[in-house]
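Ticket 4471: requesting a sanity check on a complex prediction with 2-acetamido-2-deoxy-beta-D-glucopyranose. Repro inputs:
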Amino acid sequence: MLVRLSFVFSLALCAAAATNSTAAISSKATTSTTASSTTAASSTAAATSTTTTATTATTKLPKRGLAFAADNGTDISQANHTAGVASWVYNWGLIPPSYLVDSGIEYIPMQWGAADIENLAVSVKGLGAQTILAFNEPDFDQQSNINATYAAELWMQYIEPLKASLGIRLGGPAVSSGATGRPWLTDFMAACSQCTIDFLPIHWYGDGTGGFYDYLYQIHGQFPNHTLWITEFAETSSNDSVVLDFMNQTITTLDGLDFVERYAWFGYFRPKDGSHYNLLDVNGNLNAAGQVYVDGAKKVVNALPNPTGSGTPLNGAPVTNTAGGYTTITPPADTGLTPAFAQPTGNSGRRTGGSVLGNLGGLSAMLVAMGFGASLVGL
Ligand SMILES: *[C@@H]1O[C@H](CO)[C@@H](O)[C@H](O)[C@H]1NC(C)=O
Ligand SMILES: *[C@@H]1O[C@H](CO)[C@@H](O)[C@H](O)[C@H]1NC(C)=O
Ligand SMILES: *[C@@H]1O[C@H](CO)[C@@H](O)[C@H](O)[C@H]1NC(C)=O
Ligand SMILES: *[C@@H]1O[C@H](CO)[C@@H](O)[C@H](O)[C@H]1NC(C)=O
Ligand SMILES: *[C@@H]1O[C@H](CO)[C@@H](O)[C@H](O)[C@H]1NC(C)=O
Ligand SMILES: *[C@@H]1O[C@H](CO)[C@@H](O)[C@H](O)[C@H]1NC(C)=O
Ligand SMILES: *[C@@H]1O[C@H](CO)[C@@H](O)[C@H](O)[C@H]1NC(C)=O
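Returned structure tokens:
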């Protein structure tokens, strides 16, 4: 929901000529055979005394993807290394910039709105794409803003034919989780009864796993014949440890749900507008959440020096390193995974705003400001 039209188009426009990305996709081994003895994190002096267990032979997670909203293409380098577990990437655009093509991670193109849809077939053919996404939050007037009837017409004219001619898997429109989302989708499905929708992407923003699971199961209950992709989701709390815990629980759940085909956390970008769900720090390195999501870290060690060495959580408070030692943040055991089938709660469908000042006060920003990275301990 957050990517502005101009941003999407600027990425698309600066892209190099259409490239057949199939080669790049297939060149990416699903399993790394090289054991690594180095931390995936951007270690600094603070992290040097932290034990790092090597990630041996990282297995890519087939569902896990990157919603690449970064302004700086070099940021993708943090995803493509031995420890990386993400297996696909999208950027709300149709033509991948060269840095995404070269990343070796499968790129999924998107027909974001109605504009230029006449060129869709030529573009996806040039890309050698096997899967596409369609219409980003068409129910939302600040996003692609297409009514359901018109979207169905566009689908039948420009999207549906790609299946027969090119064998492409078609992702349906991705509605917002706001009040307009499900009514729009219901109307679209009725208007598009002849459409072949291979999977249904959805979005969710809110606070707490309960609302997320409720929404997921409501959509699944309404459209049981469609597998789902969650192409944007995030915990909107401004408490980094709440965000991390939500992520920890939900990605584990999504990996195990057979009606969920793929998912992409929102998102792969540096801190912006007070966000706390970004996966990168201000320098484009993986932050604590990024290490869990992108590198599959099991446990995140806060590399800030602990003044007492007692293991007391630091909660982001500035400290002086008087005694050395590190605080380990261990997310609590998974709870609340049973869907309640209730109305979503805490789910406005809109990202909550945040001030720059609020963000600067956050733990991840502070880690950077103090020159400390975080490192990983494998379990
Ligand atoms: C990183 O990308 C390169 C292509 O530039 C690819 O050859 C390599 O396999 C990728 N590495 C990983 C771990 O994905
Ligand atoms: C893309 O490249 C792959 C691998 O070289 C090839 O099999 C496929 O036919 C190509 N697709 C297109 C549309 O050129
Ligand atoms: C839907 O959008 C199309 C294209 O903009 C427009 O022609 C049509 O009047 C709209 N229909 C409704 C019901 O708003
Ligand atoms: C799901 O598919 C089955 C079998 O084709 C069909 O009977 C059923 O009506 C479908 N359900 C919905 C909600 O479309
Ligand atoms: C953040 O959330 C954690 C876990 O719920 C809690 O222990 C901590 O007090 C919260 N921090 C702040 C600053 O609210
Ligand atoms: C992209 O990020 C890298 C690493 O932080 C930096 O060196 C480079 O200047 C940035 N490029 C742009 C265009 O901002
Ligand atoms: C979530 O936290 C638990 C408890 O620390 C840990 O065992 C598990 O590996 C974590 N899951 C992820 C995906 O990081």
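Notes from triage: The chain has a mean pLDDT of 71. Leaving this open until the requester confirms.
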